[in-house]
Write a structure and sequence with these properties.
The chain is an alpha+beta fold. Helices cover about 25% and strands about 35% of the residues. The protein contains five helices and six strands, in the order E-H-E-H-E-E-E-E-H-H-H.
Length: about 120
């Protein structure tokens, strides 16, 4: 899941301790959110100028109808852990496994699938 730091950052999530992930207006991203379950771990990616994975969040609620638009969904998320060092898009693209990640291939997609093997690379 990605967000521009000026809109909502990892620091904001740590301060708030949890938030409703809303505002997603892409059907593929929505479908990815619908697949998430309570307890799933997801990467938090700063898009925009930063372009780096900064932390891991935990899904705290199942997908529910977005009150602002019934065609989309919201999820409650909470910070789980900050990465020891952010992993930049440049580093991701240099890794033969990670360069194939969905969000690298579809850079405009705000919520994308991550395989267990890919996720493991961020668990150091």
């Amino acid at each position: 899941m990605k967000s521009e730091p000026g809109t909502y950052s990892w620091g904001d999530l740590k301060r708030d301790r949890a938030t409703l992930w809303d505002g997603v207006r892409n059907y593929q991203a929505r479908n990815n959110m619908k697949l998430m379950a309570v307890g799933d771990q997801v990467l938090f990616y700063h898009s925009g100028a930063d372009k780096e994975v900064v932390g891991v969040m935990e899904i705290k609620s199942p997908a529910a109808e977005d009150p602002a638009d019934k065609n989309f969904v919201v999820l409650k998320v909470a910070p789980l852990r900050e990465l020891k060092a952010p992993i930049t898009l440049k580093q991701i693209k240099a890794d033969p496994l990670l360069v194939k990640m969905e969000f690298v291939r579809q850079s405009r997609l705000s919520v994308s699938k991550v395989s267990a093997e890919e996720f493991e690379k961020f668990s150091v």
